[in-house]
């Protein structure tokens, strides 16, 4: 990490931009662990550079980060072909105020990150840099070592693909918080009827246990089946575990912890005030971003 410094100028410049670098890497990869690895490698490369020779430290660091993230994404996709059950992005805790910024909240939502999986690594990088961070095309072109016309074409294809695949969910923070709390209360009470009230009739629940937990390896559809599955899941939580609503990926999420470690995270996606999609992550390898 940055404390393993070669000198104060290196450390101060890196620390100043570290949050941005992690945000870029996480949105590009959908993985907290892989994003941390990329940021660490960016630091190692930055530590070997004379800061006095770098005109724009942010541009330098983002360029290194996004190129490393693209390489990592290509490798990760090969690994994901052998993944057991559905693959979901790793959930991360986010600041409560992010939910108040619709664009920012959407850019880190598990629903959008899952859609971005359908893009090529370059398309995803361009989409993230442009749509989430607002970098101009000319700068993105320099980051990627591509011509500006090619970057604009990548951005056009990426936006079109996202628009065709990305369902627009309810974004009002108050509604999302209220429904999530009602959902949790029904779960905690094992009340199937109360759960069905907050679920859309055609709700879908997707669970990612990575083959390491008892998570269903296929999506579950329909309010009755999903409600019953959730009640069963809630009864299987470890003795002594605690459950609460915390800000996860730009909105309220249900987080289950035991002995200080997160064991399960649910993120709810609403349409017209009802839960339309539920993402459940229980793989221990994918919960490091929610333990803080």
Structural overview:
- The chain has helices at 8-29, 32-47, 57-80, 102-107, 110-116, 121-132, 137-144, 148-165, 173-188, 192-198, 223-235, and strands at residues 199-208, 220-221, 242-248, 251-258, 261-271, 274-281.
- A hairpin with a 2-residue loop joins strand 4 and strand 5 (261-271).
- It has eleven helices and six strands.
- Helix 6 (121-132) crosses helix 8.
- The protein has two domains: 8-85 and 116-165, Up-down Bundle (Butyryl-CoA Dehydrogenase, subunit A, domain 3); 173-290, Nuclear Transport Factor 2, Chain: A, CATH 3.10.450.50.
Overview in brief:
With 292 residues, the protein is α+β, with helices and mostly antiparallel strands. It contains eleven helices and six strands.
Q: Top keywords for this entry?
A:
292 residues; alpha+beta; Butyryl-CoA Dehydrogenase, subunit A, domain 3; Nuclear Transport Factor 2, Chain: A; 2 domains; 6-stranded mixed sheet; 6 strands; 51% helix
Overall form: globular
Number of strands: 6
How much strand? 15-25%
Order of helices and strands: HHHHHHHHHHEEHEEEE
Task: Quickly give the CATH architecture of the largest domain.
Answer: Up-down Bundle
How far the N terminus sits from the C terminus, by CA atoms, comes to 17 Å
How many domain units? Answer: 2
The Cα radius of gyration reads: 20 Å
Number of helices: 11
Any chance you could write out the topology, listing elements then pairs?
Layout: H1 8-29, H2 32-47, H3 57-80, H4 102-107, H5 110-116, H6 121-132, H7 137-144, H8 148-165, H9 173-188, H10 192-198, E1 199-208, E2 220-221, H11 223-235, E3 242-248, E4 251-258, E5 261-271, E6 274-281
Parallel strand pairs: 1-6
Antiparallel strand pairs: 1-2, 3-4, 4-5, 5-6
